[in-house]
Structures are given as structure tokens and as C-alpha cells.
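Q: Now give one record:
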Amino acid sequence: MYPTKTTINLVKQEATHGSIATQVGLFAIALVLIGVFAKFAVIDPLASGMDSSAEVAAAQAQLDELQAANENYAALNEKYARYVVTGLTEEESNLANRNAVLDLIRSNLMSVGYLSSVKVVGNTVMATCLGADLTEVSRLVERLEADSRVSHVTVSTAQGKDNAATSATIEVTLKGALDDGAETGEGAGNGAA
């Protein structure tokens, strides 16, 4: 007898490996592991970074507040020094810093010629130089007038007979410690105390 079936089924029926409950359980475990990884490797470092940024912003705000509070410190300290430093008059507290005066003499006046005398009274320096070259005296005046510690400069020169050596008397008036702009110069501050 001949077979009665005339078609062939080429699709192979796959056998199921494990139950659906096992597959759902494995999927749930995989989700939990992914969630744990995301929490500890992604979310926690991001949260820590945001907390650090917030702390930095708070510290910067506090620093800005402290800097704003200290803006008037120099003026306040100057007022405080006037009342606390006893024994100094207004004129005495306005004297130029004596270290700045000595520096000015050393760096400028000593290069002109033989320095025969120096007299400092208040904020005025009077120096007499012997054997001074007039060109060098002119350069000295330019340097002194450019110095932020100097208020003004006066020079008088004298020359003896027969091309004798020239003497120059240089009077330099310095800005006082309380004058506007005196604190910007080198060695500024009150050296009277």
C-alpha cells in the first residue's frame, strides 16, 4: 500500500529548555544585578560629584562674603591706627616711611656725585652733591618726578670760577603716609612709629 500522506513537514519542533518560571527568575536576577551596578557605579558617583559641587559653591559664596566684608579693612585699620597709636600727632603719622626715604636716597641721590650732606625734615629730603654733572642731575630729576613716592622736586646748582666742580642742592618733597596715592609706592606705609 501506498502512503496516504502527501506532504512533508520540514519544520523541526524545538524542545523547550527549562521552564518559563526559571527564565523569568533569571531575568529578574539580571535586572537586580544591572540595578545594583547602576546604583554603585553610576548613580552614587554622580550624586557625590553633585554634593561636592554644592560644597564648592557654598565655600565660594562664603569666601565672596568674607572678601566683601574685608573690602574696607585698609581704611578701617588706618582709622584704628590713628586712635590706638598713642603719642603721634596727625603730622607725625603723616610722615613718609623712613625706609622708603633711605631707599630713595640710596637708589637715586648717591649716583649723581659726591653726596656731601643729607638733611631729612618731615617729608622733605635736602641733599647737596658736589662734582655733579648737570646732565646726570637732569636725569635724576626725571627719575624722581616719575617715582610715585615723590610729591615734587626742586634743584639749584652752583658752579665756581674757571670750570670748577658743580654743586647741586636737590630738595625732594615726599608724599605723606596719609596722602592719596602714597600707599602705592615702593616701601609705602607709616614708618614714623
Summary: The chain has a mean pLDDT of 82. The longest strand covers residues 150-159. Residues 106 and 142 are 16 Å apart (CA to CA).
